[in-house]
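(Structure overview)
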Amino acid sequence: MNTASRRSFLKSSGTAAGSLLLLPSGSLLGQEKKPGGKLNVAFIGMGGQIQGHVAQILQLGHNVAAMCDVDTAQMAGSQKRHGDGAAKAALYQDYRVLFEKEKSIDAVVIATPDHWHAPICRAAMQAGKHVYCEKPLTHTIAEARQLRELSKASKVITQTGNQGSASPNLRRSMELIAANFFGPITEIHVWHPEHGWPSGVARPEGSDPVPNNLDWDFWLGTAPVRPFKANTYHPVNWRGWYDFGNGSVGDFCCHGFNMPVRALNLDYPTRIEISGTELGRESFAKACTVRYHFPARGDRGPVKLNFYTGGDLPPEDVTASLSESFGKLPRTGCLLVGEKGLLESGLWNSDCYVKLKDDKRFTGADNHPAAKEIPQSIPRVKSHMDEWVDACLGGAKVFADFDLGGHLTEIGLAGIVALRLQKDIDWDGPNMKVPGMPEADKFIRKEERKTYL
């Protein structure tokens, strides 16, 4: 595919979020690699989150072939941090130029602010590159649906960066639930503390000089233009602003919801209820509770998934046994309530503490006599990144591809729609609609600036 036709595709796909993207046969071709080979990996978005990924790719013996960021200082800091391993990386401020020039790139790791995830993932897959993208997979529900469909049509390997997916405890929790160890599960409680980014506040007035190392307009990208303010958006604080991120729900839905959604086969919630403080701002709520109601499905009864953040917490009677076992309520957590017992899997689903009704306290599943009798049935892996790299080299299928990551994102961001509407909603997940509320559409799919697509 030549440069002109690729750009045409990117422009059209940017306006078609939420529709099935059909591509010519053979237009998405992953570059075949044999086991034991070396990958040439490009990294896009050189803030703090991506640094561990760079280090792990180097530890695994692969090549850091290129880095890309609209802030040249972040690239310089990354090269200094990783020394010789990143010294020869080609540097770009424009991801489009990277894909045009670096034909030897096999795979891409993306850790930009959320509003850039979908455009760069689309470009990477269209260029035939394997893609690892940080969570949440996208900034809107419509983008998540589009990437899910695109990944199914693609021959590239995709992985969402919800690292708990590789945890043996997440997989152990799934095995116990499949064995009906806890009985029917009816409630899930996920909680996250106060967040450090701006929340419940209005946009600051005025502007500050843009640093010479930063292309501010490119950083804004698809989002509406706004003045630069130091220490307000870039770096780190962007997640608190709805134009760029979705606060704690966006940050942790792909973590805390991961294991329960898999284990209980949760499709789409049909009702979402919200409460909180300072909901009507262009920044995320100061504190909030979001309740997702999933209807019965197959042999499973209805399930209520509750997310608390900013100081909101589950009812004390629900978490009393946790406080008794650990001395206090864990700062973050994911608690599943079953008819026969409880499972505490942690916010990243990387714990597996169990308590049956006759038990005095929570116990690690590996030390619980009854849990030990449940056989292992899900393969274990070295790490989330190892799993993706192995799949890129022709190994086993990944555990958290874009179809799964996109589904988790759709569930989480349906809660954002309710928060931004400031009201409880019915949710038509398959059709991505709030029935009878056309005013919700602007929070499901967004108007994009096309300048950098």
User: Anything to note?
Assistant: Confidence is low (pLDDT under 50) at residues 1-31. Residues 167-197+248-381 form a domain with the Dihydrodipicolinate Reductase; domain 2 fold (CATH 3.30.360.10).
